[in-house]
Amino acid sequence: MQDHPHLRYFHETYQASRSGFRNLLPKLQEINPRTKIGFITIPSSLDTDLTIDYFQLPSLKKTKSTLIITSGMHGVECAAGAAVQRNFLSEIYSSQINLDYTSVLVIHSINPFGFKYNRRVTENNVDLNRNFLKNRKGFQRFNEGYPKVFEFLNPKVSLHSKSFSSRLFLMKALWTIIKMGIPAIKQASLQGQYHYPEGIYFGGTNYEPLRKPLGKLIRNFAKKSPRVLLVDIHTGYGERGKLHFFPSDPKKPRFKKYTEEIFEGYKIDWASDEEFFTVTGDLCTYVYKILPKKCEIIPMVFEYGTLNSQSTLGAIESMKRLIRENQGYHYGYKNHEERLIMTAKFLEMFHPSDPEWRIKVIEDTINVWKKILPRLQKY
Are 246 and 282 in contact (CB under 8 A)? Predict the structure, then answer.
């Protein structure tokens, strides 16, 4: 199993993943001589070598559809997302894409700080998928449910997993569920918040520096395309080993119709479904804002489940790991061993070491590409 060809697409570090991505340039230029590589440098007070890298693969004749694939919105999730991207560029692009009429933009590691330092968020503790707000007024929006779960989500003490308080986590979680119910807790926490900078799901108090150049890159590449499919790759949420499909909920019925046509045969979890939740400031909604109204826009999150968070116990375990990683980062750990244990558990939540999980990620995605790309490219 360790020799399975799909496993070669997975790299464990940001540096190795970025190098593996960049090294695809010669092969891609053989397939499409118009291929261009570029990068966006991310300003940082901690690290001078953080870049968002991308390949532009324009159509050879006329663009009738555009595919955009992004990874690493939540940094620690990027290893699997980048593996999917490398598999696409190595195997799918030349065999499933109509090079004459389909343009492709592949963006590696939108949050390089999080990928490099094993965090879900940016250097500023910002959840990027809550930061792509329509305008700055959105940062004044108050999430009324968040204060109700603030103390549970953000303990302000150093992390000691064997302390009396930590041992009571399951009881605290169950009590919170009894008081509020799982749907209310999900909405309060996952929606995003803009008033607690050290809290989880913090969307920031202003736009992160990458928003403007990233938006410009996407807009300039896709603005003349009649149809655009954005695939934003994530890991962590949902049934382990299953590929889930999460779109933003479009206000215009025609966009929902396009999405259902492209993903016919797959279960789509719409944000408006009763059992689901809505978020603010996500990339998928942002794409609707920056591309022309005449464009057919189909933004979709590919989410690969890891801890069975669709179940009550899985959701509690997922929340515990998120809380403790954030707690340890801001308030410290009892000792170095505690830090190592927490880091390992956090990584497993988003980038499982299990080769079967990794192989299934690639296999399932290949099968999806083979079904949806012909529909996207049906002119």
Answer: no
Name the CA dihedral angle for 254, 258, 264, 270, rounded to a multiple of 10 degrees.
-60
Q: Where are the alpha helices (DSSP H) in the chain?
A: 14-22, 25-31, 78-87, 93-96, 112-116, 146-153, 164-167, 169-180, 182-190, 211-222, 253-262, 283-290, 312-331, 336-350, 355-376
pLDDT digits (tens, 9 = 90+) for 134-143: 899 999 999 9
Per-residue pLDDT tens over the stretch 342-369: 999 999 999 999 999 999 999 999 999 9
Element (H, E) at 305: strand 296-305
Is pLDDT of 246 > 90?
A: yes
Give which of 215, 217, 211, 297 is closest to 36, Cα–Cα: 217
Q: Please report, for the chain, the start and end positions of each structural domain, with discontinuous segments joined by +.
A: 5-131+204-306+352-376, 144-190+310-348
Structural tokens at position 149: 């779960």
**The domain at 5-131+204-306+352-376 falls in which architecture?**
3-Layer(aba) Sandwich (3.40)
Q: What's the chain's length in residues?
A: 379
Q: In this structure, are strands 36-41 and 51-57 parallel, antiparallel, or unpaired?
A: antiparallel
What's the confidence (pLDDT) of residue 275? 59
- C-beta separation of 300 from 230 below 8 A: yes
Q: Which residue has the tokens 């929902």?
A: 256
